[in-house]
From TrEMBL:
Protein's cellular compartments: Membrane
Pfam family, one: Sortilin_C
Domain of life: Eukaryota
BP terms from Gene Ontology: post-Golgi vesicle-mediated transport
Record keywords: Glycoprotein, Membrane, Repeat, Transmembrane, Transmembrane helix
Domain VPS10: 51-750
GO cellular component: Golgi apparatus; membrane
Transmembrane intervals: 759-780
Alphabetized PANTHER family for the sequence: SORTILIN RELATED, SORTILIN-RELATED RECEPTOR
Designated name of the protein: VPS10 domain-containing protein
Predominant location: membrane
Organism: Elliptochloris bilobata
Amino acid sequence: MLGGPAPTCPRIKKYPQDGSKLKPVQVEAPVVDLWWAGTPEEIDKYVFALTEASGLYVAGRVWRSDDYGRAGSWVDITTALPGALTPEPGADADAAGVMEIVYNEAHPDRLLVLGAAFHNWISTDFGKTFARVETPGRTLGFWMECKVHPTQPDWLLAKVRRMECEESGSATNPWCAFDLFVSQDFAKSWTNLTANSEGAVTSFWDFDWGATLQRNSEDSFPDETIFATAYESAATMKGPKPGWDKDMHFVISSDFFRSAHRKLVSCGNQFELIGSQVFVALPSDCPTHPDGSQRPVQPGASSSSVVLYSSANEGKDFGQVCLPVRDLDLGYNLVKTHDGANAFLIVDHDEEDMISARAPIGNIYAPGYNNTLYTLSMTRNYRRSFITDFGRVEGLPGVYLGNQLHESFRTDPRLAFEKYVQTKVTFDGGARWQDLNQPDSFRFPECNRCASARDLGKCQLHLHGPSSWHDGQDGRPSFYTHDNAPGVIMAVGNTGEYLEQAADAMCTWLSRDGGATWQDVAPYASIYEYGDYGGLLIMTKHETEGPADSLLFSIDQGTCWHEIGLEEAIDVGNIRVEPSAASHMFVVHGKACEKRPEHPTCTHTRTDANPVGKMYIVDFRPVMGTDWRDCSDADYEQWTNGPCLLGRNYTLSRRVHASECFSGRTYKRPVAAAAPCPCTAADVACEYGYEFAGHDCRAILGIDTSQCEALKGYQMSETHRRLVAGDTCAEVSLVIPDTDGRGHGPSAPAGAPSRGHGWTTFFVLLLVLGGGSGLFYAWWMFWASDSAKATLEETTAPVIGVLLSAASWVKDCVLAMAAQITGRQRRADAAEAFFQPLASGDFGLDADEEELGRAPPVLR
């Protein structure tokens, strides 16, 4: 168990078995992104790598492998894209190369390669052959944003910037605007929806397919439905940087804007479709509600602040989202809950005190049951460059990690905010947050940085989050999880009072139980990835730590880390695996490192212009040789948790911890069995306008709950408690006697299931135990052998039963381990959806501005 002595490995092995070292694949520039395509049986057969722009070009080149990325199979196919490397008439001389690859996950045979100038390329045979097609309206592909239809494989939407924007003075030209195009034949031809509208729409901004929304029925609206924010008059257009604008509106069309569109929300500027909900942001000085009635404007509201509305019925009705705060809002990030049905809000507030206003912080709000009533989850959530340090622990419903500024930042005259970051974890959907515990023992002494501070109660573990990963060349890898590796978290950070930025403070950490306990696995910052459904972990030095001349991997969840030798050391930027993390084949990519006496196998010299790109393709079957073993039925166990999380108890199949075997990409996890659990204090959060103070919920000072329209018809409990969003526990009256915990009358009679909004796709496992004996029992039951577990169950079950019945204080006990298996990859990244000022929108940016319209790349 991780809380005790550091696990020891009986034998470290070196691979490949024949004593050779892996040979690198060289490309002309470092890889910036990878895509996989193939049939359902071989989804990772074809691999595409996009490299950085080199020379005078603004875009890169694309390489293709038709053999799972294996060495010797890579071909630069840019030359097979007619005109891709030839500057086109009417475009700048450097407008050549490839920008991006777009494909429909359900039909990966279809690929759209976006060029920088006036042409794109399409393939319907996994990239074996390509045909050249014109960009929509013959606009520059450099400014094109494309979205595939969720169910129609040949339908595409593309937002493009008009060619007027290429003229001098375009930054202030209102005609520097954006058109929306649709293709129904996979980019062979395009229809201009601005022209289709015959003047009813003069420019588009935000857009998405209606089919992205979880529809209430098949005939809710046709596949042609498009949601968009748009200008309806040329006289109101503001050019490429409009800011929050009352003249922009949220609209819907079901026939590609051929007939009159419908205005859903006046002043609607940006929107997100999450689950069955529509979220729309609009300037806070907008004079009307979505229904057209007069809207009272909050004192101090202006076009620089924003408010949020949401709809749970496909945009038919909207209600203003209520947040328990006095400050105005400047921008939002939305992070989906594990089931994808709702979202946490991370709000950048316009704080009144000057120090807080300058600090890179926001508040996290947990979703409510009527889609508009949100409750405070965390204050002072750390953010940097609009990226927030908050994300899901994938596969574990209700478990999240977040970084918070300690209140001490207010007393620092230097305002060095980054020096006060601390990491927190929640196991109950954001209702309560707690510190990350450092291990009781360490593999590497240098990772134990606060032996004396521990006595003062100031020592804990802190982890770098998404804002660090997106921090340019000095960025550190973020905490990383995957839904096909439930319970596994790898991260870079340090022990101490706060998160440190110094290179010598970095260690790599592993949790096998969803963040409840941790172990140091490397005395430096690593980059990491998971494969074989979480049974295979791989890591190596990140480029910020210098060159890597070997890779480390584990097939026993971190007890043993074996070594793979590399023929040439490289600076590693990332390790990637196909999206479902089912494969045993990885791509390690980076660039040639500088040759020095301490790094003799590096190949880059200072006389070279730029380092070339390098890739290592790690296929574990030949690497392992005779040590490779396919798993059999005996290598899996059925495991049932005792306590519950989010109101459910699940039995699931997992690989036996000590089994050193491989499941293979065709492995399918058996469906878990689930049973409801009686409600305990671990299932509750505080109502709107309240926050935890010890075991009780107290009112947040200065919040006038009467101003929230969403409270009309909502029955608030006299206990000031509600159920955690997504919780489906039974017998709500055990913890909330006067409501159902969801804003309605008393809960159902004892023994009947509560009337909740269930999270029905989860395979969940929870250990909620009080006292030392309970905690020991939990970890033992998770890691011990079957025979040892059976013995412990017989002798301690009565004691554990008594502990679990003490629900009045269980809410402050340790919460740990849950598991969810889904077939779809999700990434823990707090930058999923942005509502930020349109003055820094996704197109027409100056060189020093951030791109905010689309989520940036995630750690994959």
